[in-house]
Design goal:
The chain is mainly α. It has 15 helices and no strands. The longest helix has 37 residues.
Length: 413
């Protein structure tokens, strides 16, 4: 089976080189995504104040709670396509790709509708401060969920590209859509004074730009991942496999987001300065996380492709190389973010010393040991690539999520 110029066959060649070449574009993609999210916070903070930034920051854990459930299904799609690619199963690739994209369209529409209706009651349940912060958060979420169908479809399309080792074209797509996002942010917030609504509209528009681009790539592809709209259908075996791996992954992500929601509720009790400081610190922390998550994605694809190709020795080597990479990257970035915490937080927070202090405390406690999270991500990717998705969901629920909820409710609250 001929390999496209953007593809990486991780069942052949240098494992270290494959992982690095796969991870770097993905790392840049994720960093760009965070940069654009940071631009939302920076612009709304500088031109609309800390309350507006608190409105945006108070919504992230809620939106992730719903969206991550469906994004988990895209992980299952990526694993199945990777296996078929490693096994050089052309017909299997075609069935998996068409099943995955139809699933992405379906769950995207469902998530968007549900999200719009649950925005206000969930924010009330979380104890979001009433008044300007609450009203802004509700408005932001409802507009954001209008763009969620496009966001989820893009994730399914990008997972197909990553499954065959293509992490460069998702980078190009995100760079283009992100520039549009930032330009719209500036226009809508500064010139039209739309504040929270402006950044939400800009995000939704950029999501639709992204999905149009990924659909164009997949429908015009000359490889086996080419999508033909008239052939979009659910193939029973492929759908079953995607759900078997993707549902536990989505549930795990949702549990993690649930624990974040509980933590956000605890933070809300400390007032607007704490919400703003936590939002800014969490945004910076995200830059450390996505760098390590790139190695999770590389492990997931590498293990899946080698599993399909029945290359057992390369599976073990892929895991060890990825672990080494993630420890070095995670420890380095975590230390740098702590050393420059005040300067980095100052980009977001300009009108509240109290909010800045909250952000610094968060970063000291979370960023230094963050390489451990990276190790967990790599091992999770390896297990999912081998098809053991339920195991990772159970251990995450009991360990990471369960302990965090207990700590937030009893040690803090």
């Amino acid at each position: 089976m001929p390999k496209g110029k953007f593809q990486i066959d991780m069942s052949k060649g240098s494992i270290f080189k494959n992982i690095v070449f796969f991870a770097i574009p993905l790392m840049l993609t994720s960093l760009l995504q965070l940069f654009y999210n940071a631009a939302d916070l920076v612009i709304v903070s500088r031109y609309a104040g800390s309350n507006a930034m608190a409105s945006v920051g108070a919504t992230s854990s809620v939106t992730n709670l719903l969206i991550n459930l469906f994004i988990g299904l895209s992980i299952g799609a990526g694993v199945i396509v990777s296996r078929k690619f490693g096994a050089q199963d052309k017909e299997g690739i075609k069935k998996s790709v068409h099943t995955a994209m139809l699933l992405g369209i379906t769950v995207g529409i469902i998530a968007g509708i549900v999200g719009i209706f649950i925005s206000e009651p969930v924010l009330k349940l979380m104890g979001t401060p009433k008044g300007e912060v609450f009203d802004g958060a509700v408005l932001y979420m409802k507009i954001l969920f209008i763009g969620v169908p496009a966001s989820l479809c893009y994730n399914f399309g990008a997972s197909i590209l990553r499954a065959v080792g293509d992490t460069r074209r998702p980078l190009y797509i995100l760079a283009s859509a992100g520039i549009i996002n930032v330009i719209l942010n500036l226009i809508l917030v500064i010139f039209f004074h739309l504040d929270v609504a402006g950044v939400a509209i800009a995000t939704a528009v950029s999501n639709y730009v992204s999905v149009i681009a990924v659909f164009w790539i997949l429908t015009h592809s000359k490889d086996d991942i080419k999508i033909e709209l008239k052939k979009l259908k659910f193939h029973k075996h492929e759908l079953k496999e995607i759900l078997r791996i993707g549902l536990p992954a989505g549930i795990q992500s949702s549990f993690f987001s649930l624990s974040n929601t509980v933590i956000q509720s605890s933070v809300n009790a400390f007032g607007e300065a704490a919400i703003a400081g936590n939002a800014a610190g969490g945004n910076i922390e995200g830059f450390v996380y996505v760098a390590m998550n790139a190695f999770y994605q590389a492990t997931l694809t590498g293990v899946s492709q080698n599993y399909g190709a029945q290359e057992e020795k390369r599976i073990n080597k892929t895991i060890w190389v990825a672990l080494l990479c993630v420890v070095v990257v995670g420890a380095s970035l975590g230390a740098l973010s702590v050393v420059f915490s005040e300067q980095l937080l100052g980009i977001y927070i300009t009108d509240s010393a109290k909010a800045l202090n909250f952000g610094v405390k968060r970063m000291y406690l979370t960023c230094l040991p963050y390489f451990l999270c990276g190790m967990m991500e790599v091992l999770t990717g390896a297990l999912r690539g081998l098809g053991c998705s339920t195991t990772t969901a159970v251990t995450s629920f009991i360990g990471t999520c369960g302990f965090r909820i207990f700590w937030a409710k009893f040690a803090v609250g």
